[in-house]
Amino acid sequence: MKFFKKKKYQSSGSLSSLAIRRFKRNKLAMGALLFIFFTSFVAILGYLITPDSTPYANNQSLELATKKPGFSVLVLNRRLNKPKTDISWFHKMLYGAPKEFESIPIVSYKFVGDNIEVEHYTGMSPNEGAIETYKLVDIIFPFSKYSQNINNDKPPSIKELRMIVERSYIFEKHFLLGTDPFGRDLLSQLIIGTRVSLSVGFIAVLISLIIGITLGAIAGYFGGWVDNLIVWFINVVWSIPTLLLVIAITMALGKGYWQVFIAVGLTMWVEVARVVRGQVLSIRQKEFVEAGTALGYSHTRIIFHHILPNVISPLIVISAANFAAAILIEAGLSFLGIGVQPPVPSWGIMIKEHYGYIILDYAYLAILPGLAIMFMVLAFMVVGNALRDALDVKLVDD
Description:
There is one protein chain. By secondary structure, this protein is an alpha+beta fold. 56% of the residues lie in helices and 10% in strands. The protein has 2 domains: 71-175, no CATH class; 186-390, MetI-like (MetI-like fold, Orthogonal Bundle). It is built from 16 helices and 5 strands. It has a 5-stranded antiparallel sheet with strand order 4-3-2-1-5. The two termini are 22 Å apart.
């Protein structure tokens, strides 16, 4: 008997545990899922981790336009003449922090009495930047706030002012992915663009599930003229090209952030409705549905508590594919100029603004957001295909 091997398929477990085990064995799908989790985590943190934490990462500096990845420059921060606004970390995470400093790129500086003399950065060789002088007190405006922490409310000395400016207001700023033609940090734009793409995918899929499940379940459960009417409506919407329908809805609702979400969601429910209707048509003939009807359960309870839980598997696969499609549609709309509007950063807008640089020495300006779209869509498609295989009960768990 010791020569006989134990069969692997004899291991017991629920269908969900078997599906999870199958999915985990797919290394490519696990890598794609980790990539989705990582990008989602980055999108949620948003302005907390971006080098440029101003709203929409829109801090422009024309002296730093189209700088290559890895570029760094010396910066003098000059406090703006306005009261400091205290915001919570949660508010900063969602909306960014208002600009409190004027960032002045410089090449060199020296202290002259109670002033600081700087040479402005021009990006040329030789630099030949303008020489400008600032009062140290103006740099750390309002200096009275600092004087309250120095020498018991006494005005700080020139030595203390120099120390404060050199320690806290002059630093080397790094641009890991370089800057765009407006001098904005490209990495910050990509990170906030991740939030836009994932948001439009999530909200569009949510809208499509709500509409598709409702119409599909009603059509499949009740049948008759109700089914014919809903199927006719599904076929009408199905016959219209998706992109044209999205453009039409966008034109009706107007251009904007939330309008894109709604427009994309209103075009993705058709496939969900067709799949749900087909599944409900086959399940409503089962014995447990007839038993619920005989016990006097309401139609709503039978649909939502007894039928729809058996339709979850195909819906998960469709949602993953729709998520990828929503990201592509949003990028296409933004590229055409009828999606998310500037200054909101979007991968599609970044490609639109920079595709002319592909033939120049700055092709990365358009390639980087294009790669971000490609990897995000590929990740969702890989996860969707892996879920389809893992949830297929016909496959033998070997």
